Every structure is written in C-alpha cells, then in structure tokens.
Q: What sequence folds into this?
C-alpha cells in the first residue's frame, strides 16, 4: 500500500516545500485556536468558529491533483476562464457560493443589509456633529497607511486596498479589495478579518494606555433631543442613500444595502426585518467566515506579497484607533470636559464592536457612566465615513 497516496493529507506534506508544510501545520493549529477563542467569546464566534473550522480543514485536506500538483476540493479562488469555472463548480463543494456571492462582493452587501437592520440611526441623528467629527478622526489609519504602503513599493491600488483595513469594516475591505487589488483580495480579506478580531483584545489596552482612569470614568451629561421618530429615521435613510450614491456611485451597492436594511426596520415591515436579521445576516456571516477559513491555505499565506499586508494592516488599525481617541479628546476639551474621550474608539467602524468596547471600558472605570448611545452614533458614522473613503479610493486610485 502506498501510504502517501492512501492518506494524502499527510502524504502531501512529504512532497511540498518545507515552509509550506510548516505553514499548514501552524494554520491547522491556529484554526483550532480560533474555534476555542470563539467558543469562549474572546473573539467573535459568528465569524471565528466557521473560519477556524475552514482554516483547519483546508490545510489538512490537501491532496494530489496530478502527479506534480497539490490542491483541495474546497474552492479555487484563481480560476477565471469559463471552462475552468464550469469544471470547479462541479467538483469543489464551496465553489458555487464563492463564485456567485464572494468573488463579486454580493456577500459583503448582504452582510451590510443585515447590519442596517441592527443599526439605529437615531443615535447618529441625536448627536450628528459629534459623531461625524469623531468618525472622521478615526479614519487616520485609512488615510495615513496609503502613503506608507506606496513608500514600501506597492501600487496605489494595492496600498489603498490595504489601507482600508483601517476602517475595521470587514465587508468594506472585501468590497474594496475586489475593486482595487483583485489579485490580492483573498489575502487582504483573510488578514483583515483576522486582525479585526484583535480589536476585541487590542483596543482596550490602547484605551487604557492613552486615557487615564479618572477621565475614562467621565459620565457624559447629554441634553440632546431623545425622541427621534421612525419617519425621521426613514427620511434620513432615503436622503443619505441617494446623496451618497450620487456622489460616489462606485460604492453605491454598499450604501444601498446598508440604508435599505435600516429603512425596512424603520418602515415596520416585520417579516422582512426578521428575514434580514434571522436569515440573510446569519447565512451570509456564516458562509463569509467559512469561506475566509478555506481561503486561508498555506500557499496563500506564504506568498511573499502577504508580508506588507500583515505589517500595514496592523498599522492601519492602530492608527485608526489612535485617531478616534484624538477626536474624542478634542470633543472632551471643546465641551469643557463634559465628554468621555473613550467614545473616540467607537468611531472606528467595526459596528457594534468598537461601541461595546468603549462602553465596557467606561463602565469598568465608573459603573454609573453609560456611553453606549453616543458611542453607537460614532460607530454608525464610522460606517458612513469608511464607505465614503472607500468610494473615493476606488474612483481615484482604481486605475493605478
């Protein structure tokens, strides 16, 4: 019996380069760790559990595709010709979902539609100027990482796609990388989602390092209007969608998806709301996580072009967090210290994660302080500013 041919997952390890084999083993272990951390709610379980399973399985299930090549039966992200697509659709079990929802950014729009159902634009309408001010500062990483990437020798399109990791918005990164850096969109998207999970663990330390405990515990006294009606929210959804689509048509699928989801909720269409929240959002999130996992094979991660993405991704997220906190401090000083600068981290548009992080850190410093409402406004504003910058980058840099 030929052991290598019978147990090909193990057998291929004796035929591949040593660095690929080591990477496969590391990624299998990392996949298991992601599942465990998702189970413990240390990382987002909705993404990390399917992603961890996919990552572990795809790196374990490598087989001989021919006498000289290895591959898997999960998905082939590089196939482009019509005949090749028809062949893999009949062989690779996740290929139909990848081809018809992932590689054309449909799945990103579906996630955005579900997020729109969960979002409450009332928090933005109550504090529009404060929320947008903070969100603009939280784009520091998105803006500053672009020239850094260009200085490292990347094209404008590649540098812009990687810089958008600083938005901390996974669907946005997927959408933009398809437009700006299609040959790198798989590693950019995979790394972006891995890094976004780090916001759970990393941003609290950034907050504690930059904001003293007595300031973190500041209770914000707000006197703004509290009764925003569903009609006002719906009007905002329609006007904002039309204006943003007119200004930046390249990002119009994202704008439409998000505001449509929110408009359905505010219109009181219960059946559609439940469908988007309970079916569309969770279906798309599950398969997004699973596809990210199976795309994270060793040959992709070991590509030399991935190293700049690893470096620039963490730079972008760190700078965005710092920028948000700077914006929070400016509002704190302008308002005569009647503001909590911790809210600034919520301007990074990983909704609702960054808003929850801000609220949790404030609550740890002062149990009676509650900032979740205004933090959600800043986070929602971050989604809008991130989509605007994405549209600008695609319009101006997509050809370079």
A:
């Amino acid at each position: 019996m030929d052991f290598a041919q019978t147990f090909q997952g193990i057998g291929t390890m004796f035929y591949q380069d040593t660095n690929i084999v080591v990477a496969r083993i590391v990624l299998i272990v990392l996949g298991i760790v992601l599942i465990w951390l998702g189970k413990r709610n240390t990382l987002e379980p909705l993404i990390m559990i399917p992603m961890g399973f996919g990552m572990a399985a795809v790196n374990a299930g490598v087989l001989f595709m021919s006498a000289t090549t290895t591959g898997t039966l999960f998905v082939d992200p590089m196939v482009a010709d019509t005949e090749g697509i028809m062949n893999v659709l009949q062989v690779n079990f996740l290929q139909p979902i990848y081809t018809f929802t992932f590689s054309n950014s449909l799945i990103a729009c579906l996630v955005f539609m579900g997020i729109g159902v969960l979002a409450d634009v009332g928090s933005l309408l109550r504090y529009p100027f404060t929320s947008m001010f903070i969100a603009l500062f939280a784009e520091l990483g998105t803006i500053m990482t672009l020239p850094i990437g260009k200085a490292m020798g990347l094209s404008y399109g590649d540098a812009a796609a990687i810089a958008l990791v600083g938005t901390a918005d996974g669907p946005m990164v997927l959408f933009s990388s398809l437009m700006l850096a299609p040959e790198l969109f798989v590693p950019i998207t995979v790394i972006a989602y891995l890094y976004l999970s780090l916001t759970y663990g990393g941003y609290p330390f950034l907050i504690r390092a930059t904001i003293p405990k007595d300031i973190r515990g500041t209770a914000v006294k707000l006197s703004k209007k509290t009764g925003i009606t569903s009609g006002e929210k719906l009007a905002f959804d329609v006007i904002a969608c039309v204006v943003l689509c007119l200004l930046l048509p390249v990002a119009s699928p994202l704008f439409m998806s998000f505001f449509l989801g929110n408009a359905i909720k505010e219109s009181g269409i219960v059946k559609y709301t439940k469908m988007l929240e309970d079916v569309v959002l969770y279906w798309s999130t599950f398969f997004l996580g699973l596809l990210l996992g199976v795309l994270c094979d060793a040959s992709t991660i070991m590509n030399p072009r991935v190293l700049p993405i690893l470096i620039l991704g963490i730079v972008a997220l760190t700078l965005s967090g710092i920028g948000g906190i700077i914006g929070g401090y400016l509002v704190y000083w302008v308002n005569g210290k009647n503001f909590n600068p911790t809210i600034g981290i919520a301007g990074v548009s990983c909704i609702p994660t960054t808003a929850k992080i801000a609220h949790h850190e404030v609550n740890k410093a002062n149990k009676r302080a509650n900032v979740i409402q205004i933090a959600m406004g800043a986070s929602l504003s971050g989604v809008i500013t991130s989509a605007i910058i994405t549209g600008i980058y695609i319009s101006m840099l997509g050809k370079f």
Observations:
- The beta strands are 63-64, 70-71.
